[in-house]
Amino acid sequence: GGKDRRSGLILTIPLCLEQTSMDELSVTLDYLLSIPSEKCKARGFTVIVDGRKSQWNVVKTVVLMLQNVVPAEVSLVCVVKPDEFWDKKVTHFCFWKEKDRLGFEVILVSANKLTRYIEPCQLTEDFGGTLTYDHMDWLNKRLVFEKFTKESTSLLDELALINNGSDKGTQEKERSIDLNFLPSVDPETVLQTGHELLSELQQRRFNGSDGGVSWSPMDDELLAQPQVMKLLDSLREQYTRYQEVCRQRSKRTQLEEIQQKVMQVVNWLEGPGSEQLRTQWGIGDSIRASQALQQKHEEIESQHSEWFAVYVELNQQIAALLNAGDEEDLVELKALQQQLSDVCYRQASQLEFRQNLLQAALEFHSVAQDLSQQLDGLLGMLCVDVAPADGASIQQTLKLLEEKLKSVDLGLQGLREKGQSLLDQISNQASWAYGKDVTIENKENVDHIQGVMEDMQLRKQRCEDMVDVRRLKMLQMVQLFKCEEDAAQAVEWLSELLDALLKTHIRLGDDAQETKVLLEKHRKFVDVAQSTYDYGRQLLQATVVLCQSLRCTSRSSGDTLPRLNRVWKQFTITSEERVHRLETAVAFHSNAEKILQECPEQPEAFNEVEQFDEIEAVGKSLLDRLTVPVVYPDGSEQYFGSPSDMASAAEHIREKMKLVSLKKQQLRQPEATTPES
């Protein structure tokens, strides 16, 4: 690292007591002499051969070897001799004699005399100088430099090959580059090593207490600091290009991967995925069949969902590339995104359409099954013969029948709505059939739907016809029960009229006028009873007609008619007895009142004794009838009113008979006095 007075580099060759290999020494000298620049070599070398620990013949051999290893560059060779060993004359004579042949001057000098030829600041401490030198430190740095130079040079070649090959862009280049696309060493590591080395080269070390500047063993001229800087600059340039190439390559690779995945998704959706949907066109003919098709469709959806997940991931990647991509990639990326979205949305729409179609089919079959069960229940109800206990139960049964029929109507209406909706969806199925003719498949589905609706309509119509017949029959039965109930009620009413006639119609009147009024009221009372009886007869006749129509026997009409006739017979007998008593009472009161109202000045009116006798006879007859009960055909007897009531009526008649008798006596007295005078 030191320099002589001519600024030539100093080369120190330390020799030791051990055997020195000339071959190794030659190789070492060749390496060391290759380090300085040509400019430095032109200034010549000063070689210091340290022979203090070696033999003369070795020193001589080394000096002679310099002629071959270091030609004209050597200007001076200083052989440092031991203090008490070599013969000065011999050694000096030998080198002096060989001076012309060697081409350089050789000087034998002691270590302490070396400063005569070289400045102390350019000599190390071994030769009494002040130059700071650490051979291991120099060696380590030199190894780092050599490694950096080798790696950087190789790396530059690789990067240049990669960058230039990427610029050409041909398929052959791309194939060759793909095989060795990654450099053999890490560029970051090489750059870091170079920067650290450059930092070491740029340092200046200061030594000595005198503050003088010493030459660094890692001088620019020795380690070629500009070469390191040049290599670093070239590395940075090539690495920057390499990074851009890698970025472009990565982007292109990512774009190709995305394109490949997009085509995988598109090819599957348009291929196997679409084929799965093409094979699934049926809607099933029952709830179980529709549920099986739904389960199959769920399996298809599960397979599609995996590809849809890939679509979502790809869409996010494409969106990220669109946000950060170059302009030349935007068109391709947008085209990929649009193609992927179109296919996925179309396939998703088809899946949703198929799912909706199957759901509509399931609802249709559910409504059809419910309606079928309702029709079965209604038919079962109609097939059972009606045997109600009374009209209320018939009304309840009829109401239940009407409710079931109404429920069937609503069910059929719902079935038609579901069926029409399903038919509308099927008619739209051709829009996503990818050109496949689905007319035959759709015709089967349409025929099935229409067949189900027509079958339900026919079943409902048959049930309606049977309901009409059953309704008429039940209404007739209601009418029959009503007639029987009303006929029984008529019997009750007639019985009540008979009872009222016996218990309340007991007065015979206090005079003829009142008796006539009672007689008129009785006739009206009889008319009411007659109407009740006629109403009962008509009802019983209606029951006979209804029973004939229903082909059944009435449970009550056979008993009601005899009861009606019996009560009516009893009423007729009682009424006739009442009429006879009232008529007798009218005759009695009329005659009695006529006699009692006659004036004495008209005695000729009372000449007839028979009138009084007749009144008495009528009165007695009336009194006798009051004590006689009404006898019915079955032998039973009934009295009018209570005994006290009859006694009161009889007492009134007796009083009037007494008045008539008194009147008779009064009329007879004048008759008796006339002959005496």
Automatic annotation (TrEMBL):
Keywords: Repeat. Pfam families: CRAL_TRIO_2 (PF13716), Spectrin_SESTD1 (PF24915). It comes from the Eukaryota. One of its GO terms (molecular function) is phosphatidylinositol-5-phosphate binding. SUPFAM superfamilies: Spectrin repeat. Residues 1-135 form the CRAL-TRIO domain. Belongs to the SOLO family. This is SEC14 domain and spectrin repeat-containing protein 1.
